[in-house]
Specification:
The chain has 642 residues and is α/β, with parallel strands linked by helices. It folds into 3 domains: 3-63 and 133-185 and 454-581, no CATH class; 73-130 and 378-453 and 586-641, FAD/NAD(P)-binding domain; 188-317, no CATH class. The chain is built from 25 helices and 20 strands. The strands form 4 sheets. Strands 1-19-15-18-17-16-8-9 form an 8-stranded mixed β-sheet. Strands 2, 3, 11, 12 and 13 form a 5-stranded mixed β-sheet that branches. The chain has a 5-stranded parallel β-sheet with strand order 10-5-4-14-20, covered by helices on one side. Helix 6 links the parallel strand 4 (96-99) and strand 5 (121-124). Helix 6 packs across helix 25 (627-641). Mean pLDDT is 92; it is low at 15-50.
């Protein structure tokens, strides 16, 4: 081990790094045979009683974790269909089998149960935890439990949700008004925590955080204003004088730089050009350092500024240029406060507890936050609803002609062994890309439409810190890192709910959230091709590399405030989503722009069509990664079965 690695704390045993690293790399590259993988997974499960028995407490590499994707890769890329003798563990015929235990699949099961209270339902999921991208991260730090989220983050603007989503939240006992007090909206201002831009030594010659808000946190984190003027902040940036002049002009220009375009036509125009083109054509930006700062700040758009519409980057993301474009005042967003301490994992937990009451005590949105779930209760024969984890579905087919069949057969692999169950109906709430492999009897045009839904690969990293003194000393609450491995880092949302309490002061432990969106900028590639390359990179990167980047980036960012990664990091969970955000239609690349999102000409609408006793429900089916879309699609799928 290098001395620099020891300085970063790479020798600290805070996770099962070595075993995960070895298995993950081997499985992704060689596609381990199912039974060999099962034996490795069994060894992994025995590595620690607490982590093995309670998935939310597992650290290291999560999300698309080892054991969750290898069978699917064998099916999709090797065409494997035989996993040995098929066992039929459940003699009954289920009324409904749901393939996928994410928010859409759980919502579909919930809606079906409301419609048919006595129905027998089985939910199958390939992960070792339920919730899909709504993933809960738990840590022990400073003698207390810290919660974080590994994916689906917040109920965004719930006042505008469709009635079916509002109805589901009412069913679960979720009152959006409760967040008005649960979320400490004055936390960042009270502690003087502003937004910052992190410049790292490797790329900029110096490790420095400049207190400057680029708009990226404006819409969702109530940070304190920077104590620096815009001019003072730009003067601190380690870039050339010409770049400083351009950057300052970008930040302060408030006169219309596109007077030739009528006000009523500006938004439509900016929807058809990239943010980079807007900067060059209308603001005269030329300096490479300015582009380097801005390049990846579109963040969850999944691509860089050359592949993202200018309007969306300035509106939703908040990058500078709105006033310079001569646009009218921006619409106010509903406060971004509707957040459980574990993100939307609490919604998944409420859904599961509502359908399988034996899994955890309690009945409210408050007590679910700290409720200890008994995973042994998820799949009991006596339960009307059963949830079976670590079960990768490999085939879904009708018994006979889909037009007249009365049953569907669902085959899955668990622990390297093949199983099959039967159901009167089936909802496919898994990734669209996998459905053609699971259900080859679908019409060819539908299979092709399903393959078009290429998701954006992402990393959501949660880091447990023993304290946040360095953040306080530096006066930062959220930071963008233009050339960092993770594009941003922020203290987690300040939410106290039920018996769970957020950090009171800088001496207390806290969770930090970091994000990385893998793509290949400025190579002339479509977003789909960028995402495919990003997914390959994601699956082939060992956890050791991820951990080193996390530690190194936080050290570069916070060392001036006294941060020591070897001393101050208590735990790291990297939530790897090879298939992350659902595909959204990008007007720079996609020839689809119909007023009605349910227009039959959209590929996602063609892809989700009912086929016999099989329906499709997932975020792909709504071409949106938002929670409300997942719920709406779950409801639609069940309605189609009626």
């Amino acid at each position: 081990m290098k001395p620099t690695d020891r300085d970063l704390g790479m020798d600290r045993v805070i996770s099962r790094r070595d075993l995960l690293h070895g298995m993950g790399t081997l499985a992704a590259s060689a596609l381990l045979p199912g039974r060999a993988l099962a034996e490795e997974m069994l060894a992994l499960e025995r590595a620690g009683e607490a982590a093995a028995g309670y998935p939310p407490a597992r650290t290291g590499l999560r999300g698309s974790h080892v054991g969750s994707f290898e069978t699917a890769l064998e099916l999709a890329f090797k065409g494997r269909h035989n996993w040995g003798p098929v066992e039929e563990p459940d003699p009954e015929v289920y009324d409904l089998v749901v393939v996928g235990g994410g928010l859409s699949g759980l919502a579909a099961a919930h809606f079906y149960r409301k419609q048919e209270p006595k129905a027998r339902i089985l939910i199958l999921d390939n992960h070792d935890d339920f919730g899909g991208h709504a993933k809960r991260n738990e840590f022990r730090a400073g003698g207390r439990t810290l919660l974080g989220y590994g994916g689906s983050q917040t109920l965004q603007e719930p006042s505008g949700y469709p009635e079916v989503v509002k109805g589901l939240l009412r069913d679960l006992g979720v009152d959006k008004n409760r967040f008005d007090t649960a979320y400490d909206q004055g936390f960042f201002k009270r502690h003087g925590l502003s937004a910052g831009i992190h410049f790292d030594r490797e790329n900029w010659g110096v490790d420095r955080v400049v207190l400057c808000e680029l708009g990226t946190f404006d819409n969702f984190l109530p940070l304190a204003p920077s104590p620096l003027s815009v001019k003072e902040a730009v003067a601190q940036m380690p870039i050339s004088e010409p770049a400083q002049r351009e950057f300052l002009r970008l930040l302060v220009t408030d006169r219309d730089q596109m007077p030739e375009i009528p006000v009523g036509a500006k938004a439509e125009y900016l929807y058809t050009i990239s943010y980079r083109d807007f900067l060059t054509k209308h603001l005269g930006i030329r300096e490479p350092e300015v582009f380097a700062i801005l390049q990846d700040l579109p963040a969850d758009a999944g691509v860089g500024i050359e592949a993202t519409p200018a309007l969306g980057v300035m509106d939703y993301i908040g990058l500078p240029g709105w006033d310079a474009a001569g646009l009218p005042a921006r619409e106010e967003f509903e406060s971004y406060i509707h957040h459980f301490p574990d993100g939307n994992a609490s919604i998944a937990r409420l859904l599961v507890r509502g359908m399988i009451p034996a899994v955890a005590p309690g009945k409210t949105m408050e007590d679910v936050v700290t409720a200890r779930f008994d995973y042994s209760k998820l799949d009991e024969a006596k339960s009307a609803v059963r949830l079976r984890l670590n079960s990768t579905v490999v085939r879904v087919e009708h018994e006979g002609d889909p037009k007249t069949a009365k049953r569907v057969r669902i085959s899955y692999v668990r622990g390297g062994r093949a199983y099959r169950v039967q159901a009167r109906s089936c909802v496919l709430a898994c990734y669209n890309m996998m459905i053609p492999h699971l259900c080859p009897e679908l019409p060819a045009l539908q299979r092709e439409a399903l393959r078009l839904q290429v998701k954006s690969p992402i990393l959501y990293t949660t880091v447990a810190l023993r304290n946040w003194r360095a953040w306080k000393k530096l006066g930062i609450g959220g930071v963008v890192a233009p050339t960092g491995y993770h594009i941003n880092a922020m203290l987690d949302f300040p939410v106290s709910l039920g018996s769970y309490r957020y950090s009171k002061g800088p001496d207390d432990p806290i969770a930090v959230h970091m994000e990385r969106f893998l793509h290949r900028s400025n190579m002339g590639l479509t977003p789909r091709d960028q995402h495919r390359l990003g997914r390959y990179e994601l699956l082939s990167t060992p956890f050791e590399t991820l951990e080193r980047n996390v530690r190194g980036q936080l050290a570069s960012m916070l060392s001036a405030g006294g941060f020591d990664p070897a001393r101050d990091i208590e735990g790291i969970t990297v939530n790897r989503w090879a298939h992350g955000y659902a595909r959204w239609y990008n007007p720079l690349f996609d020839p689809y722009d119909f007023e009605d999102r349910d227009d039959e000409r959209y590929p996602h609408v063609q892809a989700r069509k009912r086929f016999g006793r099989i329906t499709i429900a997932n975020s792909d089916a709504g071409a949106s990664a938002m929670l409300e879309s997942a719920v709406v699609q779950g409801h639609r799928a069940i309605t189609e079965l009626s």
